[in-house]
Amino acid sequence: MDWKCISRINTSQKTTLHGVECPDHPLKHLTQINDPLKSRKVSVERIPATSLNLALDGTDPLSQFARLDEITSPLSENFEEKSASVTAQGPNPKFQVWATKRPAILNKYTTSEKLSIVTSFLTGGEIIKSSTTTVSEKVKHRLEQLDDFDEDPVRQMHNLSQHEYIMKIEQLNHQLRDAWNTDQRVKALKIAIQCAKLLADTSAMQFYPSKFVLITDILDLFGSLVYDRLKNKALYVRPGSTKASKLPDDFTPEMIPEATKETSFNWFYKVASIRELLPRFYVEAAIVRSYKFMGNADIEGVLNRLTLIARGIGDPLVSAYARCYLCRVGMQITSAKPYLRQNFEDILSVYLTMFTGGIRAEIARQRISVGTYVTLYAPAFDWILTGIAAGADDFTMDELVLRCQEKKNCAPLFYSILQAFPHKFVSVRALHFANILCKCDTEGYSRAELLRGLGMCLVDCPPEANQLYDVFEFVWKTVQTFTQIGEYVHCMEAWAIYVAANLMLGEVNIILEDILRRAASQKNAFEAHYTELQSIIDKIVTNFPQFDALLTLDNFLPVIDLFQKESNKQAVCRNILTQFKTYSESVGYLSDPVIINVIMHISKILNDSVNALTVDDEKRQIGEAVNFFIRLVNFGTDFEQQLTFYNDARAAFTNLDVVYVTLVQLVDNLAMETYRIVNGKHSRKTGDFVKSCIAYNFVTIPSITDVRYQLDLYLLTGQIALLNNCLGQADACFEAALKSIAELPKHIDFDGKPKSTEPYLVSYLKNFLSMLIIAPDSPEMGALYLFRLLTEQVQTYGFEISALIEIYLAVLDTLSIMSQETYPFHVANVISNDKLYGQDQKYLNEINKICTNVTSQILLSLKALADAGNFRVQANFALQLFEKIVLYSDIADDRAFQLAVNLWNLAVKQRANVKQGEFEKYLKRVEDEIELADGNQRKVKLTELFNRIKAKL
Q1: How many helices (H) and strands (E) does the chain have?
Q2: How many CB atoms lie within 10 A of CB 907?
Q3: Alpha-carbon torsion 440, 442, 444, 446, what sign?
Q4: Among 50, 57, 302, 847, which one is least packed by beta carbons within 10 Å?
Q5: pLDDT at position 772, please?
Q6: Does the pLDDT at position 10 exceed 80?
Q7: pLDDT tens digit sequence for 390-422
Q8: Strands laid side by side in the 154-160 sheet
Q9: Is 201 exposed, middle or buried (0-12, 13-18, 19+ CB in 10 A)?
């Protein structure tokens, strides 16, 4: 009995413990030593060199074991995997394993207090106890004080931070592994003992659950090492075989060799020799699985005995976690429940010690509240109750509920019941639990916390349909009495899901109305609880099936406007738009003006949150959500209302480029839909509407910051205007596009790297030139105004020489087509330049003038390529210009003829830089052109040219 611990219980509390007669003691010297299981008698004489007699002459029996040749190391390479497998494959395979709870405990129970650790296996610290060194002293203390150390002094390290403390525990874990791997069994056992001793220290109560997790990890390791060693040592000869093999996982008592049984017995005898109660309890519990090697072991009897031993632990917090560990290891080896129930009954017997004056004084000294202190018991209570409830019948659980209800300050017990009991059990008795929780004493846990727990159970498993409203109504009466906003929102996080998922719109409105009432009565009531309020709104939005009806509630938008912290308001709005997208997938389109206004308001909040500091990815996400909403709005054939909506959207979403791009595209689509309906034959009304669409886009496009989008949309809108015979609007769009070229940056950022815009612009201008073939000239601006403007803008951009030549060659191709009597394609109802000018000589002269200027620019560029030493590119472009002159010019003209010859000669000089077969290809083109020549003079000149250039090869 650890009298230091038991002395902390007052006299009145001691009388509540039930005494149990203990006729035998593990340390009692008998000729027949009682096995702790009492299942068999082991004679001292039968124990060989490992007997206790050897301990009397100074020989350590565990070290003696290590020297036996037949013993192999039980630590296998895949120890972690095997341990996890054993834990998960216990008698209760459906039971939640401890590993799933472990991370949550470590994350929740932390401390900023300085910690201390007492050990002999870590360097540093203050020596607090001298060691014994002589052989006689070793013999004297071997059995009485197993945890004293032979060589190293015990040291105490103070003022450790939580992180440093965890690192020290991890070092002990490694020390234990290393000791075992090097056959230092005694050292490994001593490390386990000293680790168990650390669990008696409650000087930093808030950290105790996490410390329990860390220490028991080491004890679990030690238990597995012992078990694996015994199993590996037990060689079993199968019937009919002469070869020994290892025991199977499902071995039976008759398979166990006598030597293994004796070794197992000595492990437990050594553990029984530990003087102090707490380390003796923990170490025996850690290796309790190894009782299987003692033959027909009464595992239930062992667990019941350890349950009674735990009564000697005086500190209620230490006792609760000791019982938790016992239950944890017990559930791995047996499905029996009596010891679980007995542990919980013992907890109930001394339950009030959690609230006594001595405990209150200690938690006051550590500056923690009673509420915080009580929550430290939750992991232990939860685990024990979960073990009891696993597979238990309703009668057993009802009885436990009744026993807990009888206790004063029963809130912690019921909180753990809600966590541990099956939700179906709680759901069937929802009203009964609600009645208990609304009335029970709540020191440590508020009624809000308890009702939140009930709500979470009922969310997972709702009551019967006829009880849904009754349960909410009963709980709601208590919730409305909460004056602390923190308690209120914490509780409503769970009940918001319950109401949204199971009840009607009216109950949802009740919650929203109550939130607004509290906000109105208390200025800035929710200011410190925006995260919880956000969670409530998110849960309602996510779980309420009638999303459209929810948006129409009068209290919906006012609740969102309660958020004064932008990050929370934006998160709520983003979630609403996400749920709106899910809802709209089943609808197809949106035309309800009320819902449109609500979503518009929410979307505008997100738009207004965008500023210069907003990251691109967030802009993209917001833009995608808003674009989805805009595309969904559809008023059918009421195009004017549709355009009005797009006007409102343009005014609302001024910070989102992608939304403006979408609006322009949608308005273009609206114009084209009008064109389709009237089959291209506009009335005055439809014509005016299309012009309104074009005007909308012409005003909107300059507001887009990305010049590439501007260029593309100007061209698209101009083409649609041209198709709808809105020639003035088309000219304006095309002119604006060309003038925007100067604003296009030379480089843009792409994935953090600069990327040239030149390839994009070259492609764009080629596309633009093809459109200019059918676009008639404006009477006000003169012939080929857009061509002249294009060539001017090209020079201002600052193209690389190769790109500039490529554009100029495309200009020559386009002008060649525009000089033809009839163009190869037209737009319906649009008179192009071929009909407008009808081969007028002034028009053709203007084409020739531009061609001459462009050709001069190409020649200058070819010279610049030579100056730069880029002869390969120069030769290829010279051949391309040669081809244009042959195809498009009057080759009979001496200047054109001579230019073609010079270009060919220039390319021939760089023959080494020209791809093989290129000259032959261009020769063939000239030969084909001779065949197609429609005049004798042209044919003669082409023939002469062919002969001259062929001779050069």
Answers
A1: 46, 9
A2: 26
A3: positive
A4: 57
A5: 93
A6: no
A7: 989 999 999 999 999 988 889 999 999 999 999
A8: 115-119, 154-160, 126-129
A9: middle
Give me the pLDDT at residue 91, please.
Answer: 55
Q: For residue 22, what are the contacts with CB-CB under 8 A and spacing of at least 6?
A: 308
Instruction: Write b or e for each residue in 273-304: b if 16 or more Cβ atoms lie within 10 A of its Cβ, otherwise e.
Output: bbbbbbbbbbbbbbbbbbbbbbbebbbbebbb
Q: Give CA–CA dist 774/721, Å, rounded.
A: 13
Structural element, H or E, at residue 543: helix 530-543
Which of 350, 334, 438 has the alpha carbon at shortest distance from 387?
Answer: 334
pTM of the model: 0.72
Contact between residue 223 and residue 287 where contact means Cβ atoms under 8 Å apart: yes
Looking at residue 950, its pLDDT comes to 85
313: burial class by Cβ within 10 Å (0-12, 13-18, 19+)? buried
952 sits in which H/E element: helix 936-952
Other C-beta atoms closer than 10 Å to the C-beta of 255 total 14
Q: Please report, for residues 615, 709, 718, the alpha-carbon distance to residue 705 in angstroms, rounded to integers and kept in the order given.
A: 16, 8, 19
CA distance 538 to 496: 9
- pLDDT at residue 445, rounded to an integer: 86
- The bridge status of strand 235-237 relative to strand 244-246 is antiparallel
Dihedral of the CA atoms 495, 497, 501, 507 (nearest 10)? 50
Cβ neighbours around 11 below 10 Å, total: 6
Least confident range of 49-53, 109-113, 252-256, 759-763: 49-53
User: Which two tokens mark 923?
Assistant: 């020769």
- Residue 276 makes CB contacts below 8 A (sequence gap 6+) with 2, 147, 197
Number of Cβ atoms within 10 Å of the Cβ of 10: 12
Instruction: Please identify which residue in the block is written with the tokens 């702790």.
Output: 36
Tokens 């709106």 locate to 580
Sign of CA dihedral 940, 945, 946, 951: positive
pLDDT bracket for residue 6 (50, 70, 90): very low
Other C-beta atoms closer than 10 Å to the C-beta of 469 total 17
- 201-213 tens-digit pLDDT: 998 999 999 999 9
Q: Which tokens in the block code for residue 232?
A: 């590996």
What is the DSSP pairing of strand 126-129 with strand 41-43? Answer: unpaired
* Tens-digit pLDDT profile for residues 273-300: 999 999 999 999 999 999 988 877 788 9
Cα separation, 854 vs 832, whole angstroms? 23
Triad 763, 766, 767: Cα angle to 5°: 90
Predicted confidence (pLDDT) per residue in 113-141, tens digit: 888 887 777 665 555 544 444 444 544 44
Phi, psi dihedral angles at 337 (to 5 degrees): -115, -15
Per the structure block, which two tokens stand in for 111? 């401390």
Distance from C-alpha of 524 to C-alpha of 485, rounded to nearest angstrom:
11
CB neighbours (10 Å) of residue 360? 13
Strands 154-160 and 126-129, by their bridges, are: antiparallel
pLDDT of residue 154: 65
Tokens of 663: 């609006």
The 10s digit of each residue's pLDDT in 898-943 is 999 999 999 888 888 888 888 888 889 888 888 888 778 888 888 8
Whether 60 contacts 279, CB under 8 Å: no
Rounded to whole angstroms, what are the CA distances from 685 to 127, 634, 692? 99, 21, 11
